[in-house]
Amino acid sequence: MHTAFSKRILFFAVSFLSCTYLFAQPAPVSREEDDLPKDYLSASFHAGRREALRQMMPDNSVMAVFAYPTRSFSNDVEYLYHASPDMYYFSGYKEPHSLLLIFKNEQTDSAGNTYSEVLFVQKRNAQAEQWTGKRLGAEGAKEKLGIPMSLNGEDFKNFNIDFTKFDKVIFDRLPADVPNDARDKSDLFDMIQLFRQKTALPEDYSKEKKFDNRSYREMTAKLREIKTPEEKDLIRKAVEISCLGQNEVMKAVRPDMSELEIQGLHEYVHKKYGAEGVGYGSIIGSGENGCVLHYEENTKTRVGNSMILMDVGAEYHGYTADVTRTVPAGGKFSDEEKMIYQLVYDAQEAAFKTLKDGSKWADAEKAARDVITEGLIKLGIAKDKAEANKYYPHGLGHHIGMDVHDRGTYTSIKKDMVITIEPGIYISSGSNCDKKWWGIAVRIEDDALITQDGYELLSHFAPRKIEEIEKMISQKSALDNFKLPPLKSAEKKGF
Ligand code: GLY
Ligand code: MN
Ligand code: MN
Fold first, then answer.
1. Closest ligand 1 atom, CA of 283?
2. How far, in Å, is the centroid of ligand 3 from the Cα of 359?
3. Shared domain check, 404 and 330
4. Does residue 267 share a domain with residue 187?
5. Are residues 181 and 56 in the same domain?
6. pLDDT by residue (tens digit) across 426-440?
7. Rounded CA gap, 403 and 110, in Å?
8. φ, ψ for residue 295 (rounded to 5)?
9. Which residues line ligand 1 (CB under 6 A)?
10. Which of 120, 437, 474, 492 is the most exposed place for a label (fewest CB within 10 A)?
11. pTM for the full predicted model
């Protein structure tokens, strides 16, 4: 407080001096932007992505990109809006109720203006903005996103566009469950209705050659699976932040912690480093809970001495990491845990070895699965491949980017892709094997950037080897002294 106050006095003194005596520049005014991150994707990145798309689009075509719908959380409260990845990728616009039209060929309006894309955005509205925050608006979109033909959503109605003249109208499957805010005549619901009218879209448009959902997915997959330098910088940051979260939790974890508390520690570290959120619900599964692949309840109140499977990905400026570490809460792996962990580690290493520009997803998949199958048979846990597959019931990995399961063609692996490699073994109680294995669940998930001759392990910041994990757990954490008073209300009720 004191320091801030002194700074303010100094600021006034300096401004006064500069105004009175220098008559030069006006006193520096602190603008909101001065306190915002400086490493968002640039307008030129988005323009470059539109141009790359245009190169792929068929002649005389238009592509429509709709923002994601908003969703109810409770009564009149909405879920925090997550920017729609395609809208964000091609325009930089992060708000809902928006539509981007990208044209293959330059268009000319009645006033003679030429344009190659039109962005319809939420209209500025002082009352709405007081409740839910500042909107960029059409003028802001022109200035900040560099899209000269940025208009308010309500302008779509009278926007003179003859969709019949295009050979192809390309768009993603239109969502059927878009909420309709009756007070807003140009929300996403209305824009989709108008789009249907203006394009004279038949009910079953999938059969019409002119209306093309397939190439929407194909083109966006081909573009988004290859990461540009700006994207790689943001993903690197998201992954490093996630690893620092894993490391701090490894150092801080104790058997009396709850799954929720561990989730909170990860997400606190993410936010400390500026990550706005997580790219998916954080998975903190202790013991048997680790067998639920996307366990997000995180309700166990004491993790005990079991292993904890922690699959947590920070999202930084729209790009998400996806990193899993499985660690013993008590500090040391048991013999059985070690054997299963080592098997998953070896499977992951086998998959890593296949990775390089031009390698195949199927080869990486096979390399990992063969190690797990053979290992489980050797340990007497499975008798054959089919039984082994039950303990490893998911694929090896996926692209990451603006979506955690990012768009991709999933054929060959290419330079500048960023993918996860995440084998796992999950042995739930009651499985057809010796009881000593029951409740063991291990997933190791890393994020790899594919290079010409191999890969760069972006998630190398968090240890993967058994000894390295045990060593990390033995270290002191900055969070060790983070002690809060007990809840009075819990005491009274005897919880
Ligand atoms: N975190 C979700 C996944 O690993 O695919
Ligand atoms: Mn994953
Ligand atoms: Mn994951």
1. 1
2. 22
3. yes
4. no
5. yes
6. 999 999 999 999 999
7. 39
8. -70, 115
9. 280, 311, 322, 404, 422, 445
10. 492
11. 0.92
